[in-house]
Every structure is written in C-alpha cells, then in structure tokens.
Amino acid sequence: MPLFNVYPLYDVTPVSGKGVYVYDEKYTEYLDLYGGHAVISIGHAHPKYVEAVRSQVEKLGFYSNAIQNPLQTQLANKLETLSGCKDYQLFLCNSGAEANENALKLASFKTEKSRVIAFKNGFHGRTSAAVAATDNKNIIAPINAQQKVTILDLNDIDAVKTELEKGDVCAVIVEFIQGVGGLDEATAEFFEQVDVLCKINNTLFIADEVQSGYGRSGKFFAFQHYNVTPDIISIAKGMGNGFPIGGILIHPSIEAKFGMLGTTFGGNHLACAAGLSVLEVIEEQELINNVNEISCYFLKLAKTIPQIKKIKGKGLMLGLEFDFEVGELRKKLIYDYQIFTGGAMNKKLLRILPPLTVKKDHINQFFEALVDALDEN
After folding, report:
1. What does the pLDDT average to over 341-368?
2. Mean per-residue pLDDT for 153-157?
3. Is residue 124 part of a domain?
4. How much is the pLDDT for 376?
5. Rg of the chain over CA atoms, in angstroms?
6. What domain range is 359 assigned to?
7. Which domain of life is it from (predicted)?
8. Between β-strands 21-24 and 29-32, what pairing exists: parallel, antiparallel or unpaired?
9. CA angle 282–285–286, rounded 5-degree value
C-alpha cells in the first residue's frame, strides 16, 4: 500500500538521535537545528526522558480518562510552578491543533458567541476551527471554511477594536511569535491593547504557545514578554520532546462542566511521564538560561554576515531573512554540511529551532557552514 503523498521529502533517513544530533542508516551525523518543528526541547534520547518513558510503559502505558491518573496532577502542578501561571487549570490532549481546537471551542462555550479573530500569516493547526483560523487558503477545505473567522493585520488595533465591538467574537487567537508564518511579531502596545479590548468586549484572548512555549522564546511562554493575561494558553510541540502531547491552560475564571471537553488519548500515562521528564530537565539543567545565553551568542554572529538582511524572533525561535529564497540553501546545508534547518511561508526565511540544550560549539558549526554555503552561491 503506498503512503498518501502529501509531504515533499528530503532524501535523509534518520534512525537514531543523541542530544542535538541525529544519525542516518549510514551513521552519518547531522546537526539538528530544527528539532522536528521545535518538538525536540531537551535533546534527542535524553537519558532522563528515556528512563521515564521506559519505566512508565513497563507499569502502565494507557488507561482512559474515566479513572484517577495522579500523573496528570503531577504534570499540572509542575507546569504551574515553572510557568508561573498560577491557578490556571490544565486540559490535556494530543497535539497543537487539538489544543487550539479545544481552546476555540471553550471560548465559544464561555461567551456563547461563534466568530474568531486571527491574524495574517498565523498558523494554528489543521483541524476544523484551528485551520479556519490559519491564514493559508491552500489547506482550508470547504468544510472548514464554514467557520466564522476574520483575519486581520498584526498591529492594526483599530481593526481589532471595530470587529470586537460588533459583539459576536468569541475569541482572538494569536501567536506572540509567528512560527510557520515567518517569525513576525506585533508590538507590545498592540498585544496589550488587544488584551484590554478582549476583556471589555466579553471575548477570550487565546495565546497560541504551541511552538513558542516551554522556554523557547527566552521566557517560559512568549506572552510573558508583555503585560497581558491570556484566558487560554495552548501548548504542544516541545512539551513531550517527541511524544505526542498537547494541552490548554485555562484561566480560573472559566468554569469546567462534565462533558464540556473530552479526549481518549489525551493525558495518558505515557504522555504524562514524558511531559514530566521534560519539565524536570528544563528545571534541573536551567535550560531557559541556556536559551538566553545561546540566543545572544547566535545574534552576535548573525550580525557579522552581510547576506543576512534581517534577524527575526526571540530566544531559540529565530529566523534569518535573505534577499533570495532559501530552498536551495537549506538543501545545501543538509546534503553538503549535514545540518537541519527549517523554512517558512516566507520563502526567504531560514528558521532555527534547535533543542534548548544547544551549545556555542554547535552555533559555531552552523555559521561556519552557512558562510561557506553562501560563498558558493
């Protein structure tokens, strides 16, 4: 049976990983500065992570959410402590798309309204409401387009105010650093005014932290760079270091009711064990400090390369913008220099999303390769 051919694939077959490196079937070593779309947060095959998953699967890999699961409570408490999101409630699911889907559904339940405001170049997932709020017509099927979504420009606060005052908007959803769209950010004034306007107009403010969360921006969450209080925070990617897990953090003002949300696999024992180990490693190895240190070093080196026209993002969620499309450069970095990087909807942007454990030597390796690759063009 053939696979459904929806992915353009590079001719590389990783079979193992260790730290910031992956290895193919010929034992070729690749420096991973993309982390499988920002998923690998604490490094490939981190020993604490491996032991947590191994130990849990030996005991109990799964049971439904109809029973007590103390691991969920442990994960919630650890997340509250490290994130600083005091008194928020946690609902666990399986992916970023599912997290945003549940966030939007919960906003509609709470406000009894149905329209969503999202922003140009935003990406929130591929499930029905989440993809409708995504600014990419190529991935929105007619069944998704039935959702009521208004896409606005970042930083256009007047447009946000006008739409909110119509009284039918249940949620404003935003990435504080856009991922797939190309690392664009709004101003602090914009984010903070949107937060205020949402509260005035009985609209929930959803922070999509699926890619930027868990320390990647230099703070635990990217919204924490600003004076805002999201009603719902969606999380996934780096949350499980490769194990499928997602969730939403829900403000204490939102009351739960039996049956309001649900999932079969969300918050299963294995996922919680993986998620707990990630938080423990972030804390024990002080990885957010490492993010900020390595980010400063990365920016310092990037500014010395004249072909780089703009540096975007924060922490270890970074983009290098050129005056040419970077598709061939990415191929050269993979095939000639054995370095994984990422692309974006902005075809001139090279995305850098390494494990949070990355060191200066790895950054040196990247920039040496980048300079050589650019000189060959």
Report:
1. 97
2. 98
3. yes
4. 81
5. 20
6. 14-46+287-376
7. Bacteria
8. antiparallel
9. 70
Residues 55, 37 within the same domain: no
CB atoms within 10 A of CB 297: 15
C-beta of residue 351 within 8 angstroms of C-beta of residue 333: no
The H-or-E segment that residue 286 falls in is: none
Closest by alpha carbon to 122, among 345, 341, 316, 318? 345
Cβ(354)–Cβ(376) under 8 Å?
A: no
Q: How far apart are CA 250 and CA 371, in angstroms?
A: 45
CB 101 within 8 A of CB 133: no
The model's pTM is 0.97
Do 89 and 209 lie in a common domain?
Answer: yes
Q: Which two tokens stand for residue 159?
A: 């447009």
**From CA 271, how far away is CA 209, in angstroms rounded?**
19
Nearest to 233 by CA among 255, 219, 216, 212: 212
Strand-strand pairing, 204-208 and 169-174: parallel
**Is 7 part of a structural domain of the chain?**
no
pLDDT tens figures, 92-104: 999 999 999 999 9
Q: Would you call 315 exposed, middle or buried from its count of C-beta atoms within 10 A (0-12, 13-18, 19+)?
A: buried
Q: Estimate to the nearest angstrom the gap between the alpha carbon of 8 and the chain centroid.
A: 22
In the numeric block, which tokens belong to residue 304?
């010395």
Produce one character per residue of 213-230: b if its CB has 16 or more CB atoms within 10 Å, e if not: bbbbbbbbbbbbbbebeb
- Helix residue ranges per DSSP H, 30-151: 35-38, 47-59, 70-83, 96-111, 128-132
- Quick one: 179 and 279 in the same domain? yes
Percent of the chain clearing pLDDT 90 (strictly above): 99
Q: Tokens standing for 39?
A: 């998923």
Residues 270 and 291 in one domain: no
Backbone phi and psi for residue 125, each to the nearest 5 degrees, phi listed first:
125, -175
- Give domain status of residue 151, yes or no: yes
Closest CA to 56 of 66, 68, 71: 71
Residues 262 and 346 in one domain: no
